[in-house]
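ARCHIVE CARD
Drawer: 12
Card no.: 0347
Subject: one protein chain, sequence and derived structure
Cross-reference: see card 0346
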Amino acid sequence: ISQLPLEQYPDIAPPTVKISATYTGASAKTVEDSVTQVIEQQMKGLDNLTYMSASSSSAGSASISLTFAAGTDPDVAQMQVQNKLQQAES
C-alpha cells in the first residue's frame, strides 16, 4: 500500500462553506451582535454540520466557516447555507 501513487488516495477533506459579510462603518461589537450572531443562529441545525467558527473585525467584516461531515455533497451544503442566509436576511 505504501507504494500506491498519491492520486489513488481518496479526497477526505470535509466540505466547507465560507460566508463573508460586510457592515461598513460598524464596530466589531456591532458586527458581532447584528450580523455574526444572527447568521450563526440561523445556521444551527444544518444537515451534517459538524463545526462552525466565526470572527468579526473592527473593519466591519464578518467571516463564518461551516464544516460539514465527510461525504456530504458540497453542492447540497452550499444550497442549504444559501437558503438559511435568505431566511436570516428577512
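Annotation on reverse: Residues 28 and 42 are 20 Å apart (CA to CA). The domain at 12-71 is CATH 3.30.70.1430 (Alpha-Beta Plaits).
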